[in-house]
Amino acid sequence: MVFNITSIKASSNGAWQGDNPLNYAFPLLIIQTALVLLVSRSLAFLLKPLRQPKVIAEIVGGILLGPSALGRNHEYLDRIFPKWSAPILETVASIGLLFFLFLVGLELDLNSIKRSGKRAFSIAAAGISLPFISGIGVAVVLRKTVDGAEDVGFAQFVVFMGVALSITAFPVLARILAELKLLTTRVGETAMAAAAFNDVVAWVLLALAVALAGDGAEGGEKKSPLVSVWVLLSGVAFVVFMLVVVRPAMTWVARRCSPEHESVDEAYICLTLAGVMVSGFMTDLIGIHSIFGAFVFGLTIPKEGEFAGRLIERIEDFVSGLLLPLYFASSGLKTDVAKIRGAAAWGLLALVITIACVGKILGTFVVALMNKIPVREALTLGLLMNTKGLVELIVLNIGKEKKWFLDRPFYKRNIPHLCGIVGSTAIEVGTPQNTFKRRKVMDHIMPHKHLA
């Protein structure tokens, strides 16, 4: 059935009046959410003996529900996950991601980042430099072997590939560390701080690539490369404003909600939740993804006292249990493994994955050793910093929007499906797939290093 997106209504009048609820936005969203939760929770139960994070089950569940498995039945796909419903599902899921990053910032002590700042900065620099340089080589290979790749400007294509290979999936890393109870350990704090530095650099480089590309194939006028400088300066100004102005205000709010008062005022809770949304909007306005605004706002809230604990208690289960699985599942719904055909395609896929993983792990491992971090702990950092996930998908979506590649089948030797599979199908390769082994290593080296 073909729909005009402007004619989609939120709710139906009911089956007794001849309406099919699946043709309306809200009833369909309910079915999609229930199906995603059922599949992801079932997979999480099956993977629990292997001690895999829930995010793995959620991504695999999305792949199973999408065109790679069940979605090969077009009648099912068009009925349960039609194209017109994708923006609605992703919007609701993005709200979950926004509040999850707020919770991460809320639980992460800013003083711990200061303690590991110099070490984390050097690790992040190595973790992004080596994969980025390797990405230049991969870009050259792809331009020579993949039809259509040479149609894109060399500078933005190289930066795009470098960013896609070198970035660390900050939200996925935070989710894994939180589930494994490693967020407040020395390794966890170092990894989070390094991932934060890593992503800031990656977004600035991506902004530079966007500026160089202009509006791509749509014939728009090219923007000045100074746009990336303005993005950086605006981002720094936003962080300074949050720490200098908003943080004292939130400290005052936390004191007002201290045990000396009878209860936490609901008005303060509502204003804080609104602050998450406003912070996300501001960073999106700047040109940085909204999740970083929510994360920085979480950092401004004092960790001492009752207020932070009350916020976590009220929103954590709803966000982590209901909304966040939708975001991870939506990435799997965009993936079609069948698009990879032929030995050459699989060879290029293996090349890109190997370069991305080896560069990130090796660069982080060597610099960690230079910072006098024990070998096992350095290896753990390398594996954690190699986390791949939805941030890469955001980068790939930006590339698609800017017409840096065309959406044609891979067997015609075009690049988009290679990049898409690296960002989504191969997500389990970058996301710690050997979490069971890594957890045993972490348990061995850090049983006594919890700081909280």
TrEMBL record:
GO cellular component, one term: endomembrane system
Gene Ontology terms for molecular function: antiporter activity
Keywords of the record: Antiport, Ion transport, Membrane, Potassium, Potassium transport, Transmembrane, Transmembrane helix, Transport
GO biological process: potassium ion transport; proton transmembrane transport; regulation of pH
Compartmental location: Membrane
Source domain of life: Eukaryota
Domain named Cation/H+ exchanger transmembrane: residues: 40-404
Membrane topology summary: Multi-pass membrane protein
Keyword Nucleotide-binding belongs to the record: no
TM region(s), chain numbering: 24-43, 55-72, 84-108, 120-142, 154-178, 190-214, 226-246, 267-297, 343-369
Family named by the database record: Belongs to the monovalent cation:proton antiporter 2 (CPA2) transporter (TC 2.A.37) family. CHX (TC 2.A.37.4) subfamily.
Name this polypeptide is given: Cation/H+ exchanger
Organism: Macleaya cordata (Five-seeded plume-poppy)
